[in-house]
Amino acid sequence: MKINMDKIIRALSLALDLAQMSALDNNTNMIVEEISNIDYSKHVFMNHSKRVCYISLELAHSLQLDYSTIEELYVSSLLHDIGASNFFNRSHSYPNFIKEHCLIGSEITSDFPKFNNLSTLILYHHENHDGTGPMKLKNTDIPLASQIMRLADILDLLYDDSKPCYTQKEYISSWIEKHSNIIFSPALIKAFSQCSSKDSFWFNLENINLLDVALKDLLPEFDVYLTLDEFKKIAYIFGNIIDNKNEFTARHSTGISELAYSVAKHLGYDNEKCLKMKIAGLLHDIGKVAIPNNILEKNGPLTKDQFNIIKSHVYYTKVILDKMEVISDISDWASNHHEKLNGKGYPRALSSNEISEESRIMGVCDIYQALTEERPYRKGLSPEETFKIMDDMAKNNFICSKALSYLKETVIS
Which end of the chain has fewer surrounding CB within 10 Å, N or C? Predict the structure, then answer.
């Protein structure tokens, strides 16, 4: 099975933008940039990855970079803030935030398939030309792709979605040019001047949801495909990001992944399907990136509104995974784990005949893993205590008794 990497990267960049949006909902006093005393905490991050990608590719073309470098820049710019995905919810002084999210991003992309240099480019995407960045690299010691992302990142933070693009051109251009030889190299400033002289550049920033149109010229072909095993590596990266949003779920996605894979093996599913079940387990909660941590970590009962926000995570899981297109089965199994046989599950209130065996297995694995894990308000239950609760759920037509029996056979054997 071959999976289009472009679809994967676009979907994951959406997940990262949702993570940054949810962090802002925490009302955290967040400082995302350390220069000129500008407070960017009100910035709208929904299209941050897209804009950084677009600006980066425009700069790359002005610099006449080779196509393989442009492909690498495309991937790294869409994922440049991957290290910040569960960092924005914490109150840190800005130097720590800037440095740590670069280090974390570099670490978690160290095993990223196909693009071996991704880790390095992300590590240095906050370096300044004069050596005042977090890693103290300067001038040509900073990878050119990292320099490009630095300018693109700042430009988007300066950009105000609430104003027409043409009213911002002069201010943003002036700000960037004033920081020549400080944050940006003269060569990069020259490339930016070429890009920003075109009206289309600013209109593309304003209409960033039409990114596909702009990319036809900037990236006409991105024919990179992953095997299912390579996709699994990316799934592990994002499974860990999700689990690390909360100290009490440090192995939740990994645990469900292992359970689902073991049950699939026990039932004699073929190797590809078993691997898909593992991936579905790793990604089943990817939609939680859109949920503020102050709700995920609440030590006590949730209000009705808070519970509705929590419930939306499976909706976002499906939105993100459906963008990958060719993994519709994985998307369904992952996003249906809160559906119930009595039709009262969420997010789609599916009837029993609409819930596949694989989704039913994912559902019981999720419940088992959750009940046996420690939570802020209780200790983890034993397998015996957990199965007693789940037996009652099966009797009341919440979960599938057959799927539960498969899980029992797998866990007890």
Answer: C
